[in-house]
Amino acid sequence: MEVLPEQDVLTKILQKKLENTDQNTVLGASIVEYQLHYISGSPCYKGTIIFQNGDTKDVSFIPFDTAEGEKVRDIYTYSTNICDERVLRPWYVSYCENISQHIICYDRFHDFLKDWLPMWNIKNSVKDTYGLPHSVIKTQISKLLKSVNNIHKSGLLHRSLSDISNYVVIDDNWYIINIGGNLDKFNRRSMVIQDFQDFGSMLENHVLLDTSWQERNDFLNIFAITNVSSNRLSSSNRLAQILLDNVFTKSSYDRLQMFSKIHHGLMSRKGPHNMLDNAISKGVFNCYITNGGWHNVRMSNFLRTVYRFANNKYNGQNIKSLLKFCRNVFEHYHQYNGKVNVIENEIRQLWPGFLETLLYYY
Q1: What pTM does this model have?
Q2: Which of 90, 167, 248, 277 has the most CB atoms lying inside 10 A of its own CB?
Q3: What percent of the chain is modeled with pLDDT above 70?
């Protein structure tokens, strides 16, 4: 796609019509009329596009320097080749001679994410009472992870997900803009990993700032672990699934239920689970081992009741025994009128990172 100055576009269309000698060939073009409010140095301009029937639409224009014509062309080409609820597709691109800038036209957005976050943080906290992300933050991260995965499934990659200026906000929902490239089939895995790492970097540097937050650190470690050569990450598809299945963006109920799903999954297997068994034998879970079971662990009356339920025996040297106990907590918490948020939070405090580590090797 060639990005020409607007007057040159009109001249080119007229010239083609004059040169056309084939009576059976009809040449035509559609010109989009627009108005924008120019503010020197602004990262975007608010404006309107006017359709031929007179209808109008509020839009935002992202400006680029004169020398960035090729970049603008690529962004338009790649961004129009994906359909995803959290990726904005441009209406068109142009070179505006009046301001000597290329412009990309998107649906009107209210803010860039970098401007929205400080305003949102005035009245809200990224972390909720139980140490999990606020429902808004949880939803937005989960949605964007799916969108990044869909970008890759469409054969594209973003290239600049670490740059927070590539995220905008409409009605408190986050959107990605400015997709920048194609996936190379020979380097697909490394390119996908880099895109996800860039997304993780943006979250770490701009959204999830509390470095003392255990759950936040466990989540961000997933992105860091992608640097490690491992059978667990042998394909980019598997990496995407690990990130999409993360428990950081799950509810307290879903997190607690995950212990039950993992336990039932292990019990239904006919053979050993080599990856989990190898991790256990290598001492990955040693920090959770205690002599004589967990009866000496300080726990609430509710957890103690489940622990002593019937004749359950828990071997403190066996990590799968701890998994069984957590499974039983989920299976029976409702019998004792337990509050799932409180219960799941207590398990996290007693055995921090246990669920995340299980999921990684499961």
Answers
A1: 0.86
A2: 167
A3: 86
- Give the Cα separation of 93 and 87 in Å (integer): 17
* Largest distance between two CA atoms of the chain: 93
**So what's the pLDDT on residue 339?**
86
Please tell me whether residue 288 adopts helix, strand or coil conformation: helix
Q: 3-state SS of the chain: helix, strand, coil percent to 5? A: 50, 15, 40
**Pairing state between β 56-64 and 33-36:** unpaired
CA 157/CA 85 separation, integer angstroms:
16
Mean pLDDT of the chain: 87
Rounded Cα distance between 177 and 64, Å, is: 14
232, pLDDT greater than 90: no
Hey, which residues does 103 pair with through a beta bridge? 63, 94
Give the integer Cα–Cα distance in Å for 239 and 262. 19
Residues 135-159 pLDDT 10s? 999 999 999 999 999 999 999 999 9
The pLDDT assigned to 171 comes to: 95
- CB under 8 Å, gap of 24 or more: what pairs does 34-39 form? 34/59, 34/61, 34/94, 34/105, 36/61, 36/96, 36/103, 38/98, 38/99
Which amino acid is located at 146 in the chain? K
In this structure, are residues 319 and 285 in contact, taking their beta carbons and an 8 Å threshold? yes
Q: What is the pLDDT of residue 17?
A: 58
Tell me how far apart the alpha carbons of residues 82 and 178 are, in angstroms, rounded to a whole number.
12
